[in-house]
Amino acid sequence: MDVMNWKQLLSAKRWGYESRQVDDQHDARSEFQRDYDRLIFSSPFRRLQNKTQVFPLPGSVFVHNRLTHSLEVASVGRSLGRIFYNEMRKAMPKIDSELPYLQEVGNIISAACLSHDLGNPAFGHSGEAAISNYFTDGLGASFQEQVTVAEWADLTHFEGNANALRILTHPFAGKDAHGFALTYSTLAAIVKYPCAAIDGHDKEVHHRKKYGFFKSEQAVFEKIAVELGLTKDTDVQTGYKRHPLVYLVEAADDICYNIIDLEDAHRLGILPYEQVERLLLPVCRDEQLKARLKKLTDFDSRTSLLRAKAINTLIMSCAEVFTESQDALLSGQFAKPLMEAVDADLVDAMDAIEQISVEKIYNAQSVVQIEVAGYKVMNGLLEEFIPAYLKQQKTKYDTKLLALMPKQFHAQQQDTYSKIRSVLDFVSGMTDLYAVELYRKIKGISFPSLD
Known about the structure:
Distance between the termini: 68 Å
Low-confidence stretches: none
Shape: globular
Keywords: Hydrolase
Structural class: mainly alpha
GO biological process, one term: dGTP catabolic process
Largest sheet: none
Number of helices: 21
Helix content: 55-70%
Oligomer: single chain
GO molecular function: dGTPase activity
Strand content: under 5%
Domain HD/PDEase: 62-267
CATH class of the largest domain: Mainly Alpha
CATH superfamily of the largest domain: Hypothetical protein af1432
Radius of gyration: 23 Å
Pfam families: HD, HD_assoc
């Protein structure tokens, strides 16, 4: 059985600049801190501030969007990585000389966490469904004969995880030919489902529940996988076992959205405080907490304290499981999220939170309304742009319409798949507000200001 090893898994080699020498000893920032900084200052990351997390973008009450969620996930991810490193250092006092990059695990994970939602389209999962259904049940079905089976598989199952890898590595027109030029380890830590669409969607195998790279980025991921020594998944043609740090990135995301969605629901009046307290107290595991809560007369402050305590408990529990499961992780045999591998009482408490979240939060009227509207907007944009871009003989309208698509998104290859992928790059990168505004204008529902 092939076994991965940390010495190879942790690499400061940078995508597109593989021959560049690394000298962290004389730099203020490590290569992995540079990854984090590049993402923080990037346009795709800034656009997350206008992408829905769960609830519609805020009016008078502030709730989380994709940007604030990603920042919080990065914070939790850094803690998870740091705890793991500290535990490894206790067990192996000479680990800094044997595995010098292990102390950077927190920075690698936090950078990967920042980018884990970069590929999500406007309106979240509703946007993903709209893109997929355009090809399965909409006008896009007519293009099936013009692409390969593998290409059709990822068009009909649009996946935000795969789109994130594309955003970070694709040579968009006029941009750096190496994308964001992140380190190999950071890129690998982003890919939750390391296989192509034709091998994804296996609900019985956790690392193949979805897929992690489009056909257009398959060679990119394979190069990363070989460099880092990822174990090949011999059950499928395109698959690999996860980079172990993916589990910590996944845990950070799971911790944040499960707990913070409750906090937002309370702020919006969807869940009463008493119910939030009932759900979170079993996760907090603090015998003195009830007395502290009674001293706070502000319910938002009580909810914030519960949230902080719950997140701390989950961080410590997930980090403990990760540290104790090194053999299974490095052999590619760890078969569930860390959040499902913590002790039974915590799993039960989180299951109760998930059940209420599905019943009361994710099906709240305001959430469903934005999902339905977002579906119509995304589908409508694809109906306009994809046929216009694919036509050999374009009408005057087609030409005018495509002038609205920035040059960076125009395909450098002329095959049907590459052209469709380019339009999807454009549409999936839109914020909620921009997508609605553009949809209204091209449909004649509203007109640009003439000021």
